[in-house]
């Protein structure tokens, strides 16, 4: 199993990297880009036989406490087989 975590800035938080990429895309002629948000993607390989529900709870807790900053970031967690 794998845990897949996507961490992105909250919509109300200024994302300077996203703004820079958006401006670069516009400068290169790509039109229609309303916004860009730069985040993090983390994959965690889980040991064989790991309980999916327990892993979901533990990794959610770790993501909230260590991997993300819940004040300025949102995250999505998915456990896949």
Plain-language structure description:
The chain has helices spanning 16-27, 52-67; strands at residues 2-9, 40-45, 73-80. It contains 2 helices and 3 strands. It is of the alpha+beta class and 81 residues long. The protein is elongated. The termini are close together. The model has no long low-confidence stretch (mean pLDDT 96). It has a single domain, classed as Phosphoribosylformylglycinamidine synthase subunit PurS (Mth169, Chain: A, 2-Layer Sandwich). Strands 2-1-3 form a 3-stranded antiparallel sheet, covered by helices on one side. The longest helix has 16 residues, at 52-67.
Any chance you could write out the topology, listing elements then pairs?
Blueprint: E1 2-9, H1 16-27, E2 40-45, H2 52-67, E3 73-80
Described by the principal axes of the CA atoms, the overall outline is elongated
Largest sheet: 3 strands, antiparallel
Give the percentage of residues in beta strands: 25-35%
Name the average pLDDT. Answer: 96
Count of runs of 4 or more consecutive helical residues:
2
Distance between the termini: 4 Å
CATH architecture: 2-Layer Sandwich
Structural class: alpha+beta
How much helical structure, as a percent, in the residues?
25-40%
Count of all domains: 1
Number of strands: 3
What is the top-level CATH class? Alpha Beta
Uncertain residue segments = none
Q: Determine the CATH superfamily.
A: Phosphoribosylformylglycinamidine synthase subunit PurS
Strand order within the widest beta sheet: 2-1-3
Oligomer status: single chain
Q: What is the H/E string?
A: EHEHE
The rounded Rg comes to 16 Å
CATH topology name: Mth169, Chain: A
